[in-house]
Write a sequence for this structure.
């Protein structure tokens, strides 16, 4: 008589999961302030919401996201300590767009085989970015999926909740004719469009260990550059009355125009000057390697802009000064004006991602 089938024989190592938790505990605990109750290891993360009593009408903001096929680059290089940073940026920077402070975050890692050191590296990256964002990492889950994912494969996802005072809510309702559009520089490709990037790299036959003169480092190092986390900087900018912040737009999948269109109200249009900034080298190299049309690449990648602020016409100088003091490269990208009939035949982006609002018009050529 043969021995019965065990969970371990089925491919799940619960002891490895426990070791992973031990390796990540210190990093997770490092994101906890006095509002976190119970520490690491509970079934649910607990956060003391007593602070919300100080709000007249607190609105909770939530977001969830992943990092897409960028994980394939991390897996190919066996380097996993930055992908978690990407995850946090993708989630909390969606929350801050409406002016909300991200309070808590949770993560989910699915993998074919739990390798404790790899899981701990991912979570350390998450914790590091949560510290930058001022967000508590209050819980998470690591799931082993043998037979569904290969032993070295994994995917990550996360969710966060934040809060904003109702009368301080940012968005299209505040945007006005005459407002100024300000761009904040990205750190690179961030975490969108990697299916296009990977197709280009494969087409070119380039290895991730290839040194690229334009980057000053290897291709793999460039492609794994973490997503910038803007939430604290955006909250500081929004808190400066001189900056007159009306709205933010997080530039993710769809590029600058499609994401900006989501915060433009009906009847208004943003006019963007493509020559307002120099496109960073990584985007130029990807375009040239794959002979990617500009029209396609600008609707896929961020082209050097990770976050956008729309400010009052008298707030632009103060906003630029504030961002410079925060160490964020920024510049005037365009302006907001009435959506005239003459613009109907122009290169307009409307109705992006289900939002029925205003439009964005792109003019000029990239440099």
């Amino acid at each position: 008589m043969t021995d019965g089938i065990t969970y371990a024989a089925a491919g799940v190592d619960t002891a490895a999961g426990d070791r992973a938790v031990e390796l990540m505990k210190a990093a997770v605990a490092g994101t906890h302030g006095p509002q976190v109750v119970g520490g690491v290891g509970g079934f649910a993360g607990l956060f003391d919401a007593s602070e919300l009593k100080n709000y007249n009408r607190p609105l909770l903001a939530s977001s969830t996201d992943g990092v897409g096929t960028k994980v394939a680059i991390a897996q190919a290089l066996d380097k996993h300590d930055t992908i978690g940073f990407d995850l946090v940026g993708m989630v909390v920077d969606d929350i801050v767009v409406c002016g909300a402070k991200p309070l808590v975050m949770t993560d989910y890692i699915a993998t074919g085989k739990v390798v404790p050191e790899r899981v701990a590296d991912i979570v350390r990256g998450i914790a590091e970015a949560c510290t930058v964002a001022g967000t508590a990492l209050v819980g998470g889950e690591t799931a082993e999926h043998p037979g569904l994912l290969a032993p070295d494969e994994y995917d990550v996802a996360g969710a966060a909740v934040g809060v904003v005072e109702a009368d301080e809510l940012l968005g299209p309702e505040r945007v006005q004719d005459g407002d100024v559009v300000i761009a904040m520089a990205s750190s690179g490709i961030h975490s969108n469009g990697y299916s296009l990037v990977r197709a280009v790299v494969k087409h070119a036959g380039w290895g991730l260990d290839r040194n690229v003169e334009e980057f000053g480092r290897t291709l793999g190092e460039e492609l794994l550059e973490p997503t910038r986390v803007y939430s604290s900087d955006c909250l500081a900018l929004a808190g400066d009355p001189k900056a007159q912040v009306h709205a933010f737009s997080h530039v993710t999948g769809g590029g600058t125009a499609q994401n900006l269109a989501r915060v433009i109200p009906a009847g208004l249009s943003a006019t963007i000057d493509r020559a307002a900034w120099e496109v960073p080298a990584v985007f130029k190299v990807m375009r040239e390697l794959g002979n990617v049309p500009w029209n396609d690449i600008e609707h896929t990648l961020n082209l050097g802009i990770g976050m956008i602020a729309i400010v009052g016409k008298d707030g632009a100088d103060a906003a630029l000064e504030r961002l410079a003091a925060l160490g964020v490269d920024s510049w005037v990208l365009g302006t907001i004006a009435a959506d005239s009939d003459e613009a109907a035949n122009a290169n307009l982006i409307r109705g992006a991602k289900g939002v029925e609002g205003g439009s964005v018009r792109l003019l000029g050529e990239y440099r």
